[in-house]
Amino acid sequence: MTLSPHGRRQISFTIKSLFNEQLPEDIHTAIIKNANGIIGLELFGSSEDSGKHYLSGITLKDETTTSMYYPHVAREPWWTGIVAYNPSTSPCEITVTPYTADGTSLATQTRTIEAKGKYFGTIADLNLPENTSWFQIAASTSITGFELFGTNNGNQLGGYTAVNINRNEGVFPKIEKDGWTGIAFVNIENSAANVTLTAYDDSGSSVAIQSLTVGPHAKEVKVAESFFTQDISSATYISFSSDKEIVGFQLNGSADGMLLDALPGM
Q: Facing residues of 206 across strands?
């Protein structure tokens, strides 16, 4: 494919269309090369004959890392799926460390991801401990990956990258008004994190400020308004700052149970 410089041209296509609508069974991953100056999105959607009605997108990134964080494991009526991909031409060793919500470390798993291979599946497929609330993957060489959440009825799907989403400050950029916003974040360090959340309205005025302490490797997950003791009904976004590195994301769901989107803290 060729994109003209500064042409602002957009190309959209299905993977099947690259193979005359007959996707080879041994095609599972892809790498885009020579893409300087290009931004992109990967979409996952249900087919018309599946009886399901979901669509979700994940921003394509050219970054890799040796530590990835999956800050939430959703339970019934949801499912959680993850991918860790090794773009290298050599095998990669990974260690999967799950944690409970209060930060207790559970039994680790060690796996090998072959060159251009991936570690993937739902939480049930991966045989993580029953009380896993979130987990970390540490790799011997740089990897990439993402996390997906979906409803078992096939109506909603949302996902986000797991690469380099740990930070000391950021923004949850949208509070859903016609539905709900859920926020989860974990403290990835070995000592307690002091976190400040500030809710803002569209004019940039502060609506409410809330401080909380998150224990080492612990997780906090609530709908957005439950993090605050004050009313934040006029707020449209939330910023966060922490004296320790944390990993957070938000889910926005529509009131009719049909729409869902996910974003890491930005």
A: 200
